[in-house]
Amino acid sequence: MNEITAKTSVQETPDAQAERLAGLASDVLARARRHGAGEAEVSLEESHGLAVNVRMGEVETVEHTRDRGVSVTVYVGRRKGSASTADLSPSSLEATVAQAVAIARFTEEDPAAGLADAALMARPGPDGFPDFDLWHPWDIDADRAVALAVECESAGREADARIANSDGAGLNTGASVSVYANSHGFVGVERGTSHSLSCSLIAGSGDAMQRDYWYTAGLAPEDLEAAAAVGRRAAERTVARLAPRRIPTGHYPVLYTPEAARSLVGHLLSAIAGSALYRQASFLLDHAGRQILPSWFEVLEQPHLRRGFRSAAFDADGVATRTAPIVEDGVLRRYLLGSYSARKLGLATTANAGGVRNVAVRANAGALADIARDMGRGLVVTEMMGHGINAITGDYSRGAAGFWVENGEIAHPVDEVTIAGNLKDMFMAIEAVGSDVDPRSHVRTGSILVGRMMVAAGD
């Protein structure tokens, strides 16, 4: 952001905060041992943030947050108990541990319960775990935050006379320090910051009104787009949706913009997550080692990416993370497993307890305009509504809005349509992934073209 500078807080330093939390973690683990737990793990986090929202140039909300909490899980044999508290006093920690142990003693045994194998724990180097450049606190007060939000909204409202109203603009900034430790002797510290600025505008009037938005997000303030640029982009997107036209129902190519394409990748990741697989609630059950996408398609997990949204040296079990393909040559190379789901499936953990980290989808085409030109005729999807996904069968049906393409060019906006298919078929029908990567997420993909889908016009 052009006028933004980041400063270090004069409060407790992150290193001192991490050391204090690590000491509390060791205390909790010692209490668990005294209460008879064979194994234990504990997570502690402290965070603070600022959120402001404005509308029509006036302040709506200003919220300062400061949160903390501890969650402890104990294992008595193969029985598991968990408890949590926001009170970090010794008496509260003692009561929380006692409650977790009491729960474990009355819980049914689970053969898959327990810590991840000790040999798999991440090991720090001489200087500790790697620094992935995730800590960029923003020393901004409420007045400056409000001013930036107002600047953002004003730029959008003034960008086009057709902007009739506003849903407002908001700025959010936050920082957190967390510690995960377990009775294997593992202690891992993570610290990170996040910042965002968004604007939502309304164009037209009456039944012809259209709404759209834009936002910018990053781990460092300087990674954000300028406030005025965010507002103007929101205005461009909003007025572009005015005067939508109907299209005939039929089967057409569907081109997802990068922010919409993330949802397709998300459906893939959800289907290969361990929890879905051991519950047999996935359309990709037993598909490891099989081709599920075109032969050129690749998805790579990069947990050690500098300034990546979800970079980490270890997962939520303390297992060392590693860069590895998820899909290679169109073949599903592995599932996404933590230690528990791996045991349930008779497999090995992939260091994905807590989710996937920094996924990159390889491009094989240019930007959206290039793909649309080659597509010729079809639908560009910019927004989707509803959750019409059957996780077991892969059946897919969602409301959508976007733009109709004729002769390779945007012809007019479209809304109130339904796009439908089956995710297995849709994955195999992908013809292009664009180079226009949306950097605002841990899932990094460009536009995605699905060669054929059912597109149903609204009534």
TrEMBL record:
Domain Metalloprotease TldD/E C-terminal residue range list: 249-456
Domain of life of the native organism: Bacteria
Domain Metalloprotease TldD/E N-terminal: 40-104
Organism of provenance: Coralloluteibacterium thermophilum
Family: Belongs to the peptidase U62 family.
Known EC number: 3.4.24.-
A Pfam family: PmbA_TldD_1st
Keywords, sorted A to Z: Hydrolase, Metalloprotease, Protease
UniProt xrefs under NCBIfam families: PRK11040.1
GO molecular function: metallopeptidase activity
Protein known as: Metalloprotease PmbA
Domain named Metalloprotease TldD/E central: residues: 136-242
